[in-house]
Design goal:
With 254 residues, the chain is mainly alpha-helical. The protein is 74% helix and 0% strand.
């Protein structure tokens, strides 16, 4: 908690002026916001109406959860199962909020509105800033740009899907998963993260033929605790072996 609340309030610390923060935030917001088109196409192709598709982007506004929901529905999954999968993907935003609440230090009246913009991209831009002013600018510019573009391109994608008819015939049903993978891949920086992602893919694809649509996504969520448990056991074993070696060495010296 100490490092989160000790941010300088203002100033171009470490050569990071406001203009640079705005530029970075706009870059992220525009790049990701345009992918809302893929969601609009995917959602319309899964059978949701134009109003339902736009409502998801306006109210849910978390790309991974939206893609998971419409993907499960398109595969014929139960709506409750599809919603559960989307919910579990969206839970991570609550943890982002715990971190950002300390960094942003917003007035209580503003926090419920800011919570709508607590997603992967706004969190990444905000955490990269060295001052509280930079955090607020990065969060606000990224959130506003992404929210406006995501909803606009969702509308255009849904309208486009209705105009071209069968999205599967054009291969547009794969647009959602492709965009999601493109957003996810740069975030997998450590070996543990890559292992979790790989195991989740194996679980999801392996169980796809035998479980109802939407359920494999829920089962794939156990990849994270499994990998962390295995990592903990391996680390614990290494500590035990090291202690044994030290004890043997000390015994030999005596």
């Amino acid at each position: 908690m100490t490092e989160q609340t000790a941010l300088p309030e203002t100033g171009a610390v470490e050569g990071k002026p406001d203009a640079a923060v705005v530029r970075d935030a706009l870059g992220v917001g525009v790049a990701v916001g345009l992918s809302g088109f893929a969601f609009g196409v995917t959602s319309a192709g899964s059978g949701l109406t134009l109003a339902q598709t736009c409502a998801l982007s306006l109210l849910v506004f978390t790309g991974a959860s939206q893609f998971a929901l419409v993907g499960a529905l398109a595969a014929g999954g139960n709506p409750l199962t599809a919603a559960a999968g989307a919910f579990f993907l969206g839970v991570r935003n609550a943890f982002y909020g715990l971190r950002l609440s300390q960094l942003l230090a917003l007035p209580r009246a503003v926090r419920p509105f800011a919570a709508q913009w607590v997603i992967d991209e706004t969190t990444a831009v905000a955490l990269a800033q060295p001052t509280r002013r930079g955090v607020r600018i990065g969060f606000t510019v990224t959130g506003l740009t992404l929210y406006v573009l995501w909803n606009l391109t969702t509308l255009l994608g849904a309208l486009g899907a209705e105009a071209i008819g069968d999205t599967a015939a054009w291969g547009l049903d794969a647009a959602g998963p492709a965009v999601f993978l493109a957003l996810l891949a740069p975030m997998l920086k450590s070996t543990t993260e890559r292992t979790v992602a790989g195991l989740a893919v194996l679980l999801g694809l392996g169980l796809l033929p035998v479980l109802p649509a939407g359920v494999p996504v829920l089962v794939a969520a156990v990849a994270a605790p499994l990998v962390l448990w295995a990592r903990g056991r391996r680390a614990g074993g290494a500590v035990v072996n090291r202690d044994d070696r030290e004890a043997s060495a000390a015994e030999g010296e005596r």
